[in-house]
Amino acid sequence: MAGSELNHQDYALTDPREDLAYSGFPTREAPAKMFRAKAKANGAWYFASSPKGGVGAGRFDLTDPRGTCYWASDAATALGERLGPDMLAAPGTIPASFLEPAEVATADGADGRFADLGNRRAVTHFAVTGELSKTDDYAQAQRYATTFDSAGLAGIFYAARYSGDQSPNAIAVFGDKGPDTSRQVDADTIPAIDVARSMGLTIIGAPSDDLAAAFDVVNPSETPAPKKRP
Questions:
Q1: How far is CA 154 from CA 40, 96, 109, 216, in A?
Q2: What pLDDT shows up at residue 208?
Q3: 230 assigned to some structural domain
Q4: pTM of the complete model
Q5: Is residue 13 a part of any domain in this protein?
Q6: DSSP E strands, the chain
Q7: Domain span at residue 94?
Q8: In this structure, what DSSP letter does residue 103 have?
Q9: For residue 166, what pLDDT is reported?
């Protein structure tokens, strides 16, 4: 059989192939705990979808009426995916205004089998290269999402784009489009600003704890009410 005409400089990922049974794609379970960075006003379980005939904003968005909800295996990866290019403008720093409206929700790992893009068999048996996790061709990535969903898989375990870790650390969970309040989510959330600090980022526009203490800054809710004059 003739070899490929591609070389190592070429984009190697092709579209899903009709001669392959993707129900046999290598899979893994979701991690025991999942993390999702979101706006404080929003619920954690929201499944974004692509319009019919169009391209969705998320890498693995399924087509209406199906949808995809994006999680991560740790809080830093979750926040990094939310911030995205905003982390690149001034490396090492992030404006507090990007963090104050956000928080990181946690939930138990979703049920089902997830396509494991980090498994070697993804390449050797299904011609799915690491480009699927990083490509800017979202239309192609969404065709793969549709293929995996049609094969009965629960979602995709892949390497987050805004993470130096090339092992799978992000989870795209498939479901019906829109919010799903029936799914489990932990009551407590993690402030996004705390996660950013744990990543070593300098928060621009947020006073440090030491500075606040130096000026004797207090929480208004803890300030004693003024006494009434007799």
A1: 26, 35, 12, 52
A2: 52
A3: no
A4: 0.86
A5: no
A6: 27-28, 33-39, 46-47, 49-50, 62-63, 66-72, 93-95, 102-108, 114-116, 155-158, 170-176, 178-179, 190-191, 202-204
A7: 22-222
A8: E
A9: 72
Q: Give the distance from CA 36 to its chain's centroid.
A: 6
Question: Does residue 197 carry a pLDDT above 50?
Answer: yes
Which residues, in sequence order, are bridge partners of residue 37? Answer: 104
Residue 185 predicted with pLDDT over 60: yes
Q: Is 6 among the domain residues? A: no
Q: Which residue has the tokens 């969404």?
A: 142
Six token digits for residue 4: 């490929």
> Is residue 110 assigned to a domain?
yes
Q: How far is CA 15 from the centre of its chain?
A: 23
Give the model confidence (pLDDT) of 107-151 as tens digits. Answer: 999 999 999 999 999 999 999 999 999 999 999 999 999 999 999
CB 82 within 8 A of CB 163: no
Domain total of the chain: 1
